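Hi there,

I know you've been waiting on this one. I reran it after we fixed the sequence typo, so this is the corrected version. Both the input and the resulting structure follow.
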Amino acid sequence: AEAAARCEFAISQRKRLSLLVGPTGCGKTVIGWRLAQQRILRTVNEHPCIVPFSGQSNYDILSSVIQQLDPDSHREWSSVDQQLLKFAEAVSSYRIVGH
């Protein structure tokens, strides 16, 4: 309950990035998905991404974020640099429409 409340506080204070960390099996993913679903039902201008970092390369992390921000995106990039450009493009397009 405390982790969910802290996440909700970060969102309400318009923090741009929050990390939910804890040991394996403590419920981080469950809290994240539940919070994301609650936020999605309340607003259309937020786009939560839930990304596992453990054991993931920079390429894998960015791939997961890009696919969640832009589901129509295809794996047309071959480097982290190309992914960063795609990520910046997705974020910029959301910002233009007020998200």
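Quick highlight: The mean pLDDT is 79.

Best,
R. S.
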